[in-house]
Design goal:
26 strands; GMP Synthetase, Chain A, domain 3; single chain; Non-ribosomal Peptide Synthetase Peptidyl Carrier Protein, Chain A; 33% helix; globular; 5-stranded mixed beta sheet; Rossmann fold
Amino acid sequence: MIPTDDETHTHNEMPRELVPQLVGHAATISPQAIAWSGGGRFLTYAELDGRANQLARHLRSLGAGPDVVVGLYLGRSAEMVVGALAILRAGGAYLPLDPKLPADRLDFILTNSQTPILITDSQGANRLPRGQQRKLVLSTDANQLDASPLSDCLAGPDNLAYVIYTSGSTGSPKGVEITHAGLLNLVNWHRRAFQVKPTDRSSQQAAVGFDAAVWEIWPYLCAGASIHMPEPGLTLQPEKLRDWFIAQEITIAFLPTALAERMLLLAWPEKVPLRVLLTGADTLHHRPSSRLPFTLVNNYGPTECTVVATSGIVTPGPTEDRLPSIGKPIDNIKVYLLDRHLQPVAFGEVGELCIAGIGLARGYLNSRELTAERFLPNPLCKEHEPRIYARIYRTGDLARYLPDGQLSFVGRLDEQVKIRGYRVEPAEIVEVLNTHPAVETSLVTSWDHCSGERRLAAYVVLRPFVSPQDVRLRAFLASRLPEYMVPTDFVRLDSMPVTANGKWDRAALPLPNEGNSLREEAWIGARTPVEERLIALLKPLLQIEKIGVEDNFFLLGGHSLLGTQLIERISQTFGVEMTLLSLFDHPTVAAIAMDVERQILAKAEALEAGKAQDGISSLSGNA
């Protein structure tokens, strides 16, 4: 039996006021309450509201208004929150742009979005490519802003609130257009479902270009609660993040699946301020212990459905029976499990998860064909139903109904994968990889490494007479794609395996190993005891047997999470301190060894100097 309409969605009336107005009300009620804090700085609601109003008035004078996309080239910061609110207050839609984006990808997004205005800071202004956009540098232009009050928001529910670019199956990123109605629905459901109050303290950890950041900001600012940003790198260290949650008295937080699962394994005090831990973005494999002092909630939703489409509490207990579900639809959302003819599958059978409701994106920015391909008229919408259910979004995800009516995620229809919570289209990587002059053809897929981590692998056929040491494919991709889209493994093939029908045979692809991996540096073994011990630390961490001193930690499959573990092991082994920043700057074994040896030598010299000073003091005392 397929769940009834009442079981597959919940209808709730929404307030008439939009998000920027709700934040304004919170500022009126508690102007001196903390709205945002981080890095030793904080913003009260009065300061947030006042600065956003000033910037919004200036943005309007530059042409910002309904459906005008304004770029926001800022990292996680007070300025980012002020800028986003100002754009909404001006009636425009904000486009978050991570300052870590490679120049080519940033240039594509700016060209595709046709944004006329870019908000940034002095550091960002130096990195931005030259273009037609009007650049508003907050640090230098702030004094020129009009401080007079601003009239009401010009946007309506159907106007755009924000645009976020995701990986695209066509080979290029695609800009997802989210309306004010969709954003308001997310905010309203979240405040109701988790009883968000002004006394709540939440955390903000997601990168600005990741749609989880939307969820981490607006529900709390609309409720008059406070948002707290941990120090960079803290989110990569579960024990320290737990301690930060407790010290900061965080009551509700979101963590991507991989990090949330690590937090579940930690020991927690019997009583902590944290009452709800939200997770999502990947398949959850573990249930919480009954001893954990907070509730775990698993969530599912593509960017095209305003962050969250389904949600459900994860009950404690073993996972042997089945993986935790992705819950049921949130307010004003319907889900359908359909076959290839867009007809409902039988209860318990697997079908494509299709979504309808107020959270659906308007479509893809400046891409009518792609919009028409993924957003379709709803063949199951009844005449009496509200128009918000007239369209469906085909997610490409497969799911089935469980006996209790909740949804179980099964997998994908296509090649799309999730890497550390980010949605990745392998076709986009192939599109870039095939532009390298040394590459004849390529294929990118994902595989489960023995460490339990899901990795990207690129299979490459090089052009004749090309030396593998000359191609440097990783560096080539890293200059054009975000870090999470650069494959961990590169496998060289003489030719691609094909099926009897002439199609590429993915099942025949070899798993990456030491023998077939494409190495871009000549192998040089350890030359010093420190290098030897470092390699011994790296082997079990990276699950690689042969590591040379010129090998790059990140190009061997390392990332920030593994980097944190490496730093901890180096500290325990050598008694020296390293940071993630220094690891990023000097990622080879040889460079790390030089840093370790320098610190060991400095400690030894300081110790000798101390002994000499003690000797002088002793002689002086005897005299």
